[in-house]
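forwarding from the other thread:

> can someone predict this with arginine?

sure thing
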Amino acid sequence: MKKFFVTLTLCIVFFSSRADEGMWLPLLLGKQVYADMVKRGLKLTAEQLYSINKASIKDAIVIFGGGCTGEIVSNEGLIFTNHHCGYAAITDASSVEHNYLKDGFWAYNKSQEIPAKGLSVQFLLRIEDVTHRIDSALNGLSGTERAQKQSEVIADINTLYSDPAKNIEARVSPLFKNNQFLVFVYQRYTDIRLVGAPPESVGKFGGDTDNWEWPRHTGDFSVFRVYASAEGKPADYNASNIPLKPKYFLPVSIKGFKDGDYAMIFGYPGSTNRYETSYGIKLATEINNPSLVGLRDVRLKAMFREMKNDPAVKLQLASSYASIANYWKFYDGETKQLLKYHIYEQKQQDEQKFMQWAKGKPGFDNIFSEWPKVYDAWRPYAKQRVYLFEGILGSPLAKFASTLMKLENDIVKQGADALVVKNDIEAATAARIKFLADENKISDQQILAATCEMFYNDIDKNQHPIGFYEGIKSAFGDLKDPETFKKWSIAVFSNTLIFDDAKWLAFTKNPDAVVLQNDPAYSYAGAFIKNYISKYEPLYRQFVVKNDELGRLYLKGIIQMNPGKKMYPDATFTMRVSYGNIKSYSPRDAVLYEYYTTMKGVMEKYIPGDYEFDLPAKLVDLVKKKDFGQYIDKKANDLVVCFITNNDITGGNSGSPVIDGTGNLIGLAFDGNYEALSHKLAFDKNLNRTICVDVRYVLWCIDKLGGAGNLIKELKLVKQ
Ligand code: ARG
């Protein structure tokens, strides 16, 4: 594997890159793309971008929560990220009386900041290559054996590089489809406080209608702060903790920019699969994506009906709704773009080329005779798997009920008095409290009925859990009649012990597996999961192991086939750098999209009282007065709200800093454009754009709309 690196690095000089595509590893920038970055407008040294000895930009970048990016913007640990990344923290801090989601929130001094329970940020300390170590342990192994050994070795390395006493966590990331392994070492801080957020009508302006679309007018940002112990060490929340003194923070530029200017993005792209096969594309467009979209559609409609009418329900469901809706629209768009741009056919051509090259090469020449068989074996069950995870378990009640399976098992195997059962009960009781707080029964009861019915209608009868639907039929009537499922769902909701404090207490005092087995919610979830685990999960495992194995060999072959080609690994929620330019684009014939949007456009979209396009009265007022202060864009004679770049990012990058050629923050990445929603599987050089909120709009919202000049004072503003 060492050779792999040498090949990668030696030939960089001779190949100019396709600058916009690529999620580059920060530790290899110097070797791979630095020269090209400079050509495109970068004015910093490679060391200023990433160094493990000196403070560098990488030290200002954090993993924010479980799936976003944030950046440090002051020497007091101030963090900028997206509004949709802070969303759960904002709704958690809110009540109908103090509705920060609706009205926004600003801390005018540190004592007003609100601890965000459960939220953490992680700083990347260093990255090391452990490929050799893992490869030598895997030597000669294949299939399940190899996969198992790989997980074991990775777990060992993670332990070795971690130091729990210092909150240091190491995670090996397999890259290039298990052809390379890097260990990423992080330090986690757990005292994070909410500092500010604009009203949702700004932070999520345009809602799901505008989501994944350009032109965009959303102020998708929120502000947090990371705290540390008096010694500057990671510590859980404590009133006496102090703001973290970071190793590095980003200056903020209010100079503005023009089309073609350099832009780079540091952050944590979650996942891509740019070497997906044609079979995988077909499985996505024909089975996986449409199934997910159809099921989410039903769930979202049920939730929306309740949220629209009741501010308390809106607060309760908003965060979960937003994340379901986000990828509902994504996967719908992905399917459309994959078909529109003939990605299936494109992948087939790539595979033809590979097969030509692989002829007579042992280890490579049989890949594409094996691969279709692997897909043929799994395809008949793929839909059922999506219907289980996105349908049956899309009901929060069923999902919670499913978490009781371990408890049932432990009672059966170890007896009701076992210590493990006691622990299970304790955990379940705590989880139940949380579940009940988040539960909206009206929508869930509809979801339960609808998804159970959809499974019945859409999934091959011989894949149904044996006897389950017959049971509904004999108790509630004709399975072709939707009313049957509604009646059944009502009965589940009124009889389950999960909603009944007295029954729950009785059960936990005297845990009896039979009581669980007879519970209508538990037996429902259990029937579908047991059906899946006993019959289909083994097939799925086999599919994954074989697909991974062939994927590894395929990519190994591609690397050999293209000696000297600079390659970046697929996104794995590890730190990457993307560089490119601010750039307009043409989405279709005769249409040109400008590279920025302004307040004029916000006002054009404004619909008073609308669920998605309303605006705060104060904002409308300020715009009328053209009160844009130092944040105005002189050329546009307006406030610039959002802009686009041709950077290569994906989900997980949300909240990432957009940085100019001299290292200043100019915006926050928050979305991708609809025309390039196939980007996880195929990057489109012409159409792909990253949608960013202009940092001048962010500052204007903080300063003029929020009145939080205290925060502006903390920043290092670059004006000239
Ligand atoms: N599409 C954005 C992303 O994945 C999330 C935007 C959140 N807004 C919304 N309307 N759901 O990063």
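The longest strand covers residues 180-189. thats all i got for now
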